[in-house]
Specification:
The protein is α/β, with parallel strands linked by helices. It has helices at residues 27-36, 53-61, 74-86, 133-139, 146-156, 172-181, 232-236; strands at residues 4-9, 14-19, 43-47, 66-71, 93-97, 112-117, 157-168, 184-193, 200-209, 216-217, 221-222. A hairpin with a 6-residue loop joins strand 8 (184-193) and strand 9.
């Protein structure tokens, strides 16, 4: 196996092993986990879990939830399983090495309450494919497109269940149209800006399966202050 690095979150409360040269989690995962807001006793599904970072954060923040992570790349699924074990969370997090398009409700003991995802977002024909296969599959729609992700969420969610996604802001129309066509009504949008002077790079959208029309636009999240340090809200996401 390629060499692994070890990173920590929440002042060492969570230790995360990752491939040194392969796909590594980004701030997007921390942002998504912060905005997922599961209820106590929810069953949560993370589509494209990578090294398991989002389940780890959610399990740490919300001790009563049960989480399933799905990852199509075996090398990443193996690392996610290792991370879950080394953080002592096997009783609450299960990792499936599976193509999300083949996911069935019996793999999560029935329909889930919440689906979260930080999916591949670059169309295969757009941009240079990363020569590292792990990174290419994680960023480009090679194994799964937005349609597949949203359709899987629809099939796995209970009625009134929630779907939360982080995605490039420039593809906002795509995600809203795809959710609506799948019967997941967009209910919440928040733009993510690196600084107040820059355009939004990411967007967090939450929808409800079978929900009524009506959407709430939250104030934007600004990641960095002028001096390049994290804003108070961004900094709080890394605190225990």
């Amino acid at each position: 196996m390629e060499f692994l690095t070890t990173d920590s979150l929440f002042n060492g409360s969570i230790l995360v092993k990752q491939h040194g040269a392969g796909y590594r989690f980004s701030l997007d995962a921390v942002l998504l986990a912060q905005h997922a807001r599961p209820s106590p006793d929810d069953t949560v599904l993370d589509l494209g879990t990578g090294c398991g970072i989002i389940p780890l954060i959610l399990a740490y923040r919300h001790p009563k939830i049960i989480i399933y992570g799905v990852e199509v790349q075996k090398e990443l699924a193996d690392i996610a399983t290792l991370n879950i074990a080394e953080n002592g969370m096997e009783d609450r997090i299960t990792i499936h090495c599976k193509d999300l398009k083949r996911l069935k409700q019996d793999m999560t003991c029935g329909p889930v309450d919440l689906v979260v995802t930080n999916p591949p977002y670059m169309k295969v024909a757009s941009g240079r494919l990363n020569p590292n296969q792990q990174r290419a599959v994680a960023k480009h729609e090679i194994k799964a497109t937005l349609f597949h992700v949203v359709e899987t969420a629809r099939g796995m969610l209970r009625t009134s269940g929630r779907f939360v996604i982080i995605y490039p802001a420039e593809r906002m129309a795509d995600i809203i149209l795809q959710m609506r066509s799948a019967g997941i009504e967009p209910k919440y949008i928040r733009m993510i800006h690196s600084s107040r002077q820059m355009q939004a790079k990411r967007i967090i959208v939450e929808g409800q399966k079978g929900g009524r029309h009506g959407i709430k636009i939250e104030p934007p999240l600004i990641i960095y202050r002028k001096n390049g340090v994290y804003s108070d809200e961004a900094q709080a996401m890394f605190m225990p």
